[in-house]
Specification:
Shape: elongated
Structural class: alpha/beta
Order of helices and strands: HHHHHEHEEHEHEEEEHEHE
Radius of gyration: 25 Å
Distance between the termini: 68 Å
Number of strands: 10
Strand order of the largest sheet: 1-9-7-6-2-4-5-10
Largest sheet: 8 strands, mixed
Strand content: 15-25%
Number of helices: 10
């Protein structure tokens, strides 16, 4: 039975939902000995046809009735469609490309998250400078009522690791943003750097990337990430960041007056 379930899963993974329904309907009208002929020409690609053949061959080794197999296909197809609707993951890449993988650019993915935000937006980066398209999008988000939160690494003058004051710069470029700094770790040990690079909007979409908020990262560096829409992960990430703020691990940043 496990082999048959694997064959069903392989077919559902490869074939569109409408074709799954067509195959299930044809299976109901046949049996394992005549199934190959009745399904001939249903699918247009050789890869899909090979998966159907594998399903039929595996079916012949079982005592599963046609109606039962058809119901298995319909149920598996329904579950797969629901999962895809609830969450999608897309590769995001900046740098040299090849013909093997279709990818999105880093800047495009980040702007999609920012522009989709309607209520809450949380962005984390190590540094941030020379990214006018991003700061413009953040200001537009603020103007439409989005609460924009930004966590950056502090400057050395404020106990951080970088020479520039990225928080002061962000304060000037996006005045309405709520700026945060990493204050401490829960066990009291020395903290490291804010090395995460993420953006999450409304608990429904998030971008996890190697790219900082810099022009080089958006356009020239070799950067990789994933854009995730729907599902539990964006919600969990946003709730985690909120908890870091609520427990005082992340605190509102103290921006020097000269930065304004």
């Amino acid at each position: 039975m496990d082999k048959l379930l694997d064959a069903v899963a392989a077919l559902v993974w490869l074939v569109p939902p409408d074709k799954i329904q067509l195959i299930a309907n044809k299976i109901r009208q046949t049996d394992a000995t005549r199934a190959t002929g009745s399904l001939l020409g249903v699918l247009g690609t050789s890869a899909a046809a090979a998966v159907v053949d594998q399903l039929i061959e595996t079916w012949r080794t079982t005592n599963v009735a046609a109606n039962e197999l058809a119901s298995m296909l319909m149920a598996a197809g329904h579950v797969f469609t629901k999962v895809v609707d609830q969450q999608s993951t897309e590769l995001v890449w900046t740098g040299p490309t090849t013909s093997f993988v279709s990818t999105r650019q880093t800047e495009q993915a980040l702007l999609q998250v920012i522009n989709s935000a309607q209520e809450r937006l949380f962005i984390i980066s190590y540094v941030a400078y020379d990214v006018q398209t991003v700061t413009d999008a953040l200001n537009e988000a603020s103007h439409r009522g989005v609460v924009v939160c930004v966590l950056l690494e502090q400057s050395q003058a404020h106990g951080g690791k970088i020479t520039v004051d990225a928080l002061a710069n962000m304060s000037m470029l996006v005045p309405a943003a709520r700026l945060y700094a990493w204050s401490t770790v829960s066990d009291g040990s020395p903290k490291g750097s804010v090395h995460a690079k993420v953006a999450v909007a409304d608990r429904t979409i998030c971008f996890i990337t190697s790219a900082n908020l810099t022009n080089f990262a958006m356009e020239r560096n070799m950067e990789a990430g994933v854009l995730i829409r729907g599902g539990q992960l964006p919600k969990s990430l946003h709730e985690h960041l909120d908890a870091l703020v609520n427990t005082g691990i992340i605190l509102p940043a103290k921006v020097t007056q000269s930065a304004h």
